[in-house]
């Protein structure tokens, strides 16, 4: 049996259980092995579409019941889990439910089944939530007619939205979200306006976004900063790509970076490279990553109602994730000089840097040739620094890489990245390749002088397991991350920066 659920926890047990009573709710995410439609580009009838989708809905129903038995109060299912993917605009049509606009709400589809037509999927989901008495969060395709007066209305007179919906524990439709950042989904339209889908429960304020959205400013950053959302519900259908963007890697980093909880449900399809779901608080997580079986998996975890209460003692003092803290610091110039002197005073000969492709981007790398030392490497406006000490030596090559620029393959977005990676082999040309296993353990401190404040700290160890940094945050003008006592071989340690403001300029 290859699957693993790994519980992580830092030094938080003491704060959580002794210092003061922290409130929790119980949440679940279901990594669903979706039954996919082999004929997704064929035109079919609504009747056939409903019959096809009912196979996935049967599994959803079993999981909602199983979750309710374990005391779960909210469950999240993945993106595309009901209808599958690879549709065209024409072929997806029979799979779409009608979603009434907000002015026709409230609506409880289970209690008022005849109020709107073409809502069979919504009704079935609403009844699952009402019967089991928990919040149910799912992704489905929806349609909504539009007027020719609407300049964004498609020529066929209707929108097709990739949609997340939430049913309350009574079955009422309480929130819906139309995915903004579509990922080559030809059956769906980009919504005419950004949606901020927010709802309140007695255990906190929740917000919704979907899959590729996690890499963009809208709607994510405003949900957190403007709408004060602390719990993010995240249906996804994510194809893993190491060294920097495996599903659980970005989910883990997201919760830590924004100091929020994220409930992430991915599709399970190992042949498509899709696995990796979890429930993440800023410093704790329960996740699932399985490239061995083709089975779905239910994850249940306790989630702090206030994510920052679970922070470790001292964590807040040592770490500040606010850019303004260092921007206003009068001492920053002195400190900057010290960083440079520190690097120069090492006086060691640095290996020559080289260029290599990683995640389609042209990184500048410097190899780690010694068992301990300091290296640095710069590109564009970004310099990255690493101080390291290997503990368990294996015949493996590591390199420190930097990228400061616009990513243009499979999406366009600006990045600033400092990444320590294990290379695919022993030659420098292999640095940047996808690897999942490693034997070298080390202690390190990684930092860089970033110009964006949005940094996602990520550490992946052998067999795609996750680690939290011991410390991370801003000191002077540098974002840094420290880790000692790694027990598993290091695959990637990165400060993955998203430079949202620069997307528009470089685009
Ligand atoms: C897919 O289409 C083919 C050809 O039309 C048909 O024979 C087959 O039964 C369809 N499969 C499913 C699962 O609908
Ligand atoms: C989706 O379509 C592409 C080609 O259009 C095909 O290569 C791929 O296998 C399809 N994926 C699924 C899951 O059907
Ligand atoms: C956090 O850790 C505790 C103890 O290991 C566990 O019971 C709980 O479910 C975890 N919560 C998350 C979100 O992983
Ligand atoms: C990567 O960038 C460097 C420096 O800008 C350049 O010399 C090199 O040709 C680039 N490599 C590729 C493959 O684009
Ligand atoms: C790690 O070490 C073990 C035992 O020596 C070996 O079997 C395995 O291939 C090594 N893994 C890697 C990624 O080198």
From TrEMBL:
Query: Quick check: keyword Signal in the entry?
Result: yes
Q: Which GO terms describe its biological process?
A: biotin metabolic process
Keyword field: Glycoprotein, Hydrolase, Signal
Class of enzymatic activity (EC top level)? hydrolase
Entry's EC annotation: 3.5.1.12
Q: Sorted alphabetically, which InterPro entries does this protein's record hold?
A: Biotinidase-like_euk, Biotinidase/VNN, C-N_Hydrolase, C-N_Hydrolase_sf, Vanin_C
Q: Is the Hydrolase keyword given for this protein?
A: yes
Q: In this protein, which residues make up the domain named CN hydrolase?
A: 39-305
Record-annotated active site: 79, 179, 211
Name the family. Answer: Belongs to the carbon-nitrogen hydrolase superfamily. BTD/VNN family.
Role of this protein: Catalytic release of biotin from biocytin, the product of biotin-dependent carboxylases degradation.
Protein name, per record: Biotinidase
Q: Which organism is it from?
A: Engystomops pustulosus
Source organism lineage?
Eukaryota, Metazoa, Chordata, Craniata, Vertebrata
């Amino acid at each position: 049996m290859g699957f693993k659920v790994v519980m992580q926890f830092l030094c938080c047990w003491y704060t959580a259980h002794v210092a003061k009573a922290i409130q929790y709710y119980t949440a679940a995410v279901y990594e669903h092995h979706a039954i996919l439609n082999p004929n997704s580009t064929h035109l079919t009838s609504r009747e056939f579409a409903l019959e096809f989708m009912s196979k996935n809905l049967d599994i959803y129903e079993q999981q909602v019941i199983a979750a309710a038995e374990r005391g779960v109060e909210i469950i999240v299912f993945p993106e595309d889990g009901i209808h599958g993917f690879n549709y065209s605009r024409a072929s997806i049509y029979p799979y779409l439910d009608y979603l009434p606009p907000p002015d026709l709400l409230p609506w409880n589809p289970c209690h008022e089944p005849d109020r709107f037509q073409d809502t069979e999927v919504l009704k079935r989901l609403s009844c699952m939530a009402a019967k089991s008495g928990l919040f149910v969060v799912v992704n489905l395709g929806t349609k909504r007619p539009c007027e020719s007066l609407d300049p964004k209305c498609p020529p066929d007179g209707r929108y097709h939205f990739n949609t997340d919906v939430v049913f309350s524990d009574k079955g009422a439709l309480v929130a819906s979200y139309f995915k903004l950042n579509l990922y080559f989904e030809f059956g769906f339209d980009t919504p005419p306006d950004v949606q901020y889908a927010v709802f309140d429960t007695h255990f906190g304020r929740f917000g919704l976004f979907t899959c590729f959205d996690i890499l963009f400013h809208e709607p994510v950053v405003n949900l957190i900063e403007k709408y004060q959302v602390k719990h993010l519900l995240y249906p996804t259908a994510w194809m893993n790509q190491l060294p920097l963007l495996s599903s659980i890697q970005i989910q883990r980093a997201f919760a830590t970076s924004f100091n929020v909880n994220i409930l992430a449900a991915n599709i399970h399809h190992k042949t498509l490279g899709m696995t990796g779901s979890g429930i993440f608080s800023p410093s704790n997580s329960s996740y699932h990553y399985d490239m061995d079986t083709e089975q779905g998996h239910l994850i249940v975890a306790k989630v702090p109602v206030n994510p920052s209460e679970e922070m470790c003692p001292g964590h807040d003092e040592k770490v500040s994730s606010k850019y303004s803290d260092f921007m206003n610091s009068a001492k920053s110039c002195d400190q900057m000089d010290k960083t440079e002197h520190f690097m120069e005073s090492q006086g060691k000969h640095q290996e020559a840097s080289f260029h290599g492709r990683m995640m389609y981007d042209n990184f500048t790398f410097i190899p780690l040739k010694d068992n301990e030392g300091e290296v640095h490497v710069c590109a564009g406006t970004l310099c990255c620094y690493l101080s390291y000490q290997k503990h368990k030596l294996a015949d493996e090559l590591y390199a420190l890489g930097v990228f400061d620029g616009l990513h243009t393959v499979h999406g366009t977005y600006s990045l600033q990245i400092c990444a320590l990676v294990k290379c695919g082999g022993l030659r420098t040309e292999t640095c940047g390749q996808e690897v999942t296993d490693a034997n070298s353990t080390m202690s390190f401190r990684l930092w860089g002088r970033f110009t964006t404040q949005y940094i996602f700290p990520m550490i992946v160890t052998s067999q795609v397991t996750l680690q939290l940094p011991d410390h991370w945050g801003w000191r002077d003008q540098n974002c840094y991350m420290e880790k000692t006592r790694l027990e598993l071989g290091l695959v990637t340690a990165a400060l993955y920066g998203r430079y949202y403001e620069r997307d528009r300029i470089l685009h």
